[in-house]
Amino acid sequence: MQVELKVPVLPESVTEGTLGEWHKKVGDSVAVDENVVDLETDKVVLEIVATNAGILRSIAFETGDTVKNEDVLGVINTDVPATAEAQVSESKDTPGAQKASPAVRKLINENDLSVDEIKATGKKGQVLKEDVQRHLQAKTVAPARQELPASTSPTASPATEISSAGRNDRRVPMSRLRAKIAERLKQAQNTAAMLTTFNEVNLKPLMDTRAKYKEAFEQTHGVKLGMMSFFTRASVEALKRFPAVNASVDGDDIVYHDYFDIGIAVSSERGLVVPILRDADQLSYADIEKTIRSMGERAQTGKLGIDELTGGTFSITNGGVFGSMLSTPILNPPQSAILGMHSIQQRAVVIEGDIVARPMMYLALTYDHRIVDGKEAVQFLVTIKNTLEDPTRLLLGI
């Protein structure tokens, strides 16, 4: 039986994707639920897995191709044993052809190349389309350099030659995620009236609370007590008091949300992603810590689902983990505000007339001035500051 390997039905907000790396080549055996190829959308990388065990009979698209809902990417033969299929495929192709897909072999033949002379970067030594293009570019550049006139100086410096040869440019297409990030950030600049207000918070009470209960917390809940659960709960408390900060603009309307879906910005190798902590007001500290940890780990491995990156009413970003002392975060449309955390530094502060050293953090709130007034923004940030400087406020709801 021939089983089609298809692009899954994507959400309405995602109309197409870019085909990523093929983990199997024609003739390879595949198991049920085994990842065959990656699909990169503007939100996340999806794994396209086999629904049936068998042999990958054909591949219809190459890495870098744009595909849409339910496009057929390839065909899996569930009847032919792996060894028999591999023999059939090998007998039809030229020596070394299994190192490249049919489309790549066509490109190789059109340029009168041999697959063995091309440096492969794909899994299991597979030659990719990009490998062929790099090889062709190298062949074009090499003769051009040989035709350059020799130096008139008998004592030409090797350093000069190295410097000239090293001044190369690399043109790399934006990933779909990076392009979407650029589009959304520019959209925020073009549409929102962004303004940022700042404050600072003394984190000694919070850090003392963590130090006192962290071991008992970890033993009870199986997760470490971090900073983000406190900041998330403090943000939710402030959002309850100032609903406009949790709202969004839709045309000439203001949409107020009676729920609190907090986006937690996470840096990954592919770029910044913002998974959503849904109904954060209903989660315990332990639930928040577990969810954030899980989302962070899956962001690094590309395992986040599209639904986990969709929506959100407010965002938190922590530049402090990279050493940022102060910044003005940019809005994540259509949200109307984002909280920026920064690095914790021991600074001299005056408390009850005495100059003492305290672990201080600058906070930044960027907001859309179209619906959030300056007074609301300042009071919102002061609420977060007061809550963090006296964590018992969260328990007492004051």
How many domains? The number is 2
Which architecture name of the largest domain does CATH use?
2-Layer Sandwich
Can you tell me the residue ranges where pLDDT is under 50 for at least 5 consecutive residues? 82-98, 144-163
CATH topology of the largest domain: the name is Chloramphenicol Acetyltransferase
State the end-to-end CA separation.
Answer: 66 Å
* Topology order in helix (H) and strand (E) letters: EEEEEEEEHHHHHEHHEEEEEEHEEEEHH
Helix content: 25-40%
The best one-word shape is elongated
In terms of topology, how is this protein built?
Elements: E1 2-6, E2 16-22, E3 29-30, E4 35-40, E5 45-49, E6 54-59, E7 66-68, E8 72-77, H1 82-92, H2 102-110, H3 129-146, H4 158-166, H5 176-191, E9 194-202, H6 204-221, H7 228-241, E10 248-250, E11 253-255, E12 262-264, E13 266-268, E14 271-273, E15 276-277, H8 285-301, E16 314-318, E17 337-341, E18 345-351, E19 354-368, H9 374-389, H10 392-396
Parallel strand pairs: 12-16, 16-17
Antiparallel strand pairs: 1-8, 2-4, 2-7, 3-6, 4-5, 6-8, 9-19, 10-11, 12-15, 13-14, 17-19, 18-19
Helix pairs in contact: 7-8, 7-9
Could you characterize the architecture of this molecule?
- Helix content is 33%, strand content 25%.
- It is α+β, with helices and mostly antiparallel strands and 398 residues long.
- The protein has two domains: 2-136, OB fold (Dihydrolipoamide Acetyltransferase, E2P); 177-396, Chloramphenicol Acetyltransferase (2-Layer Sandwich).
- Helix 7 crosses helix 9.
- The model is unreliable at 82-98 and 144-163 (pLDDT under 50).
